Automatic annotation (TrEMBL):
<feature type="domain" description="Major facilitator superfamily (MFS) profile">
    <location>
        <begin position="25"/>
        <end position="512"/>
    </location>
</feature>
<feature type="transmembrane region" description="Helical">
    <location>
        <begin position="317"/>
        <end position="335"/>
    </location>
</feature>
<dbReference type="InterPro" id="IPR036259">
    <property type="entry name" value="MFS_trans_sf"/>
</dbReference>
<feature type="transmembrane region" description="Helical">
    <location>
        <begin position="149"/>
        <end position="169"/>
    </location>
</feature>
<dbReference type="GO" id="GO:0022857">
    <property type="term" value="F:transmembrane transporter activity"/>
</dbReference>
<dbReference type="GO" id="GO:0046677">
    <property type="term" value="P:response to antibiotic"/>
</dbReference>
<keyword id="KW-0813">Transport</keyword>
<keyword id="KW-0472">Membrane</keyword>
<feature type="transmembrane region" description="Helical">
    <location>
        <begin position="242"/>
        <end position="259"/>
    </location>
</feature>
<keyword id="KW-0046">Antibiotic resistance</keyword>
<dbReference type="GO" id="GO:0005886">
    <property type="term" value="C:plasma membrane"/>
</dbReference>
<feature type="transmembrane region" description="Helical">
    <location>
        <begin position="23"/>
        <end position="49"/>
    </location>
</feature>
<dbReference type="Pfam" id="PF07690">
    <property type="entry name" value="MFS_1"/>
</dbReference>
<feature type="transmembrane region" description="Helical">
    <location>
        <begin position="347"/>
        <end position="366"/>
    </location>
</feature>
<dbReference type="InterPro" id="IPR011701">
    <property type="entry name" value="MFS"/>
</dbReference>
<feature type="transmembrane region" description="Helical">
    <location>
        <begin position="484"/>
        <end position="505"/>
    </location>
</feature>
<keyword id="KW-1003">Cell membrane</keyword>
């Protein structure tokens, strides 16, 4: 039996196309993903410092935060499918290079426009890196049981990266200027380039037919326009404004045309028939909802901890650390939970647990209640990571092996799109609940109230300029309004999470854990006695 097992393992490695140890490959892929995920949130705790130094307007500040995830989300399909054609490792290494260069530009930016451009360039690099990590992982782990464990580690790193960003940013801001949150990327990229070149296997997808350049550009432009419209709503633009409606209509039209084009092509970029599979389409929707809750809430939580409770950036990061630890625990236990409970119960329970955490956090007020924050962040981290693991595993396993690149691009698009929309949507809810509380404050001029209604940070600046009883009254009203807006936002988020729990009921109750014959035909006979009948 041991000889059979050894032969099957060797065949799996050869089928993956790499002689390198697959677990070492997983380490390199997770390091890549960690850097990209950290960069999506590392700027959150630095927003007050950036605001003080660069003095961006309200819309510029939104672009500084949103440019990275929105550009990345727009280009994932383009670079994911390009990697299938020219080689995933080649695109990944190019992404490393671009990421390092953009980080240097961002660190040295002396105005908001340069920082926005650098963040957009970081999004291009991230779009090259993220789909390649998941599609290479799919290749080097053909055995589903091993792949489930690898995806558990991979998805834990994604959640940990998003949660660890504020901690890293807080530490750097305690000792350096805000640009240091970008400089940390450069040495990591300098290490990742040679190590990735040595360890990562090159792989390509099905190369039949030409690469649909027009379709890739349509998808990128459509996603960007659609999320731009949502982002403008999040920035306080009127719903009927042409600068809001036009991007939404253009984006929806381009994506509809893209889908129609893909259905008609013999060799489409994305085989839309995958969405006819309930497990695949449901998993994609669950990823969007989970990331919408995580990133949007995290940005608001970081502002609450710093501006309401008065914590330093480092203290803010440390308060969010329990979320990171809980996410790591859930990721490492994910494969075992999936085998025991199945995708349907696992993902639905993860959403419900996250919703319970969000409702618990509505107890946050004007005073520091660290036991409440600890319990809420632990439940939040464990619930979200449980959801992400089950959704990613179901999505990747449901997609045919020859379409792994397209499936990875869709999964990563969902991840980044959910993060970008989360900031815009929950930010819009927060602004709508926060602004009314700043009107009619005794002794405060209408112009000052209008300026203070943009954000809590601006309200503090206006209050400092006013001084005296009027300034104190404005500061008190702004804090109270922010806490009220936070509670409303949390309740909206809880509703979305419960909707996700209902959607997850479309996932399969159980899944067969066996290696498809089309994936590794030479090893089927050796592996089947061990794999057949095993449920995940």
């Amino acid at each position: 039996m041991s000889g059979t097992t050894t032969a099957a393992a060797a065949l799996r490695r050869r089928a993956a196309g790499a002689g390198a140890n697959r677990w070492a490959v997983l380490v390199v892929l997770c390091a890549s993903l960690l850097l990209v995920a950290v960069d999506a949130t590392v700027l959150h705790v630095a927003v007050p410092a950036v605001t003080e130094d660069l003095r961006p307007g309200a819309m510029e500040l939104l672009w500084i935060v949103d440019a990275y995830p929105l550009v990345c989300a727009s280009l994932l399909i383009l670079f994911g499918t390009l990697g299938d054609r020219v080689g995933r490792r080649r695109v990944l290494l190019l992404g490393y290079t671009l990421f390092g260069v953009a980080s240097a530009v961002a660190a040295l930016a002396d105005n908001a426009q340069v920082l926005i451009a650098a963040r957009a360039l970081l999004g291009v690099g991230g779009a090259m890196i993220m789909p390649a990590t998941l599609s290479i992982l799919r290749q080097v782990f053909p055995d589903r049981r091993e792949r489930a464990l690898a995806i558990g580690v991979w998805s834990a790193v994604a959640a940990v990266g998003a949660a660890a960003g504020p901690l890293l940013g807080g530490f750097l801001l305690e000792h350096f200027w805000w640009g240091s949150v970008f400089l940390v990327n450069i040495p990591l990229m300098l290490v990742s380039l040679p190590v990735g070149r040595i360890l990562l296997p090159e792989s390509k997808g099905d190369s039949d037919g030409p690469w649909d350049v027009t379709g890739a550009l349509m998808a990128a432009a459509g996603l960007f326009a659609l999320v731009l419209g949502v982002k403008r709503l999040g920035g306080g633009e009127a719903a009927g404004s042409p600068w809001t409606v036009l991007p939404l209509l253009v984006g929806a039209g381009l994506l509809a045309a893209f889908m129609r084009r893909q259905r008609r092509r013999t060799h489409p970029l994305i085989d839309l028939r995958m969405f006819a599979r309930p497990a695949f389409s449901t998993s994609v929707g669950c990823i969007v909802l989970a990331m919408l809750a995580l990133v949007g809430l995290e940005l608001i939580a970081a502002q609450y901890l710093q501006l309401v409770l008065g914590l330093s950036p480092l203290e803010t990061g440390l308060r969010l650390l329990p979320l990171t630890v809980a996410a790591m625990a859930a990721g490492l236990a994910g494969a075992r939970m999936l085998r025991r409970f199945g995708p349907r119960r696992m993902v639905s329970a993860g959403f419900c647990l996250t919703a319970a955490a969000v409702v618990l956090l509505t107890g946050m007020g004007g005073r520091d209640d660290w036991p409440l924050l600890l319990a809420g962040f632990v439940l939040l981290g464990f619930g979200l990571e449980t959801t992400l693991f089950g959704a990613y595993e179901s999505m990747l396993s449901e997609a045919p092996p020859e379409q792994a690149g397209g499936a990875a691009a869709m999964g990563e698009t969902s991840y980044q799109l959910g993060a970008g929309i989360g900031i815009a949507l929950l930010g819009s809810v927060m602004n709508a609940a926060y602004a009314p509380g700043l009107t009619g404050v005794a002794g405060v001029p209408a112009s000052a109230s209008s300026a203070a209604s943009h954000s809590l940070g601006e309200a503090y600046e206006v209050a400092d300029r006013l001084g005296g009883p009027a300034g104190a009254a404005l500061r008190h009203a702004a804090r109270h309004s922010f806490v009220h807006g936070l509670h409303v936002t949390l309740l909206v988020s809880a509703g979305l999470l419960l909707a996700g729990a209902a959607i997850a009921l479309r996932l399969p109750r159980t899944m067969q854990c066996e290696t498809p014959a089309a994936e590794v035909p030479a090893q089927r006979e050796a592996v089947e006695p061990r794999a057949a009948g095993v449920k995940v």
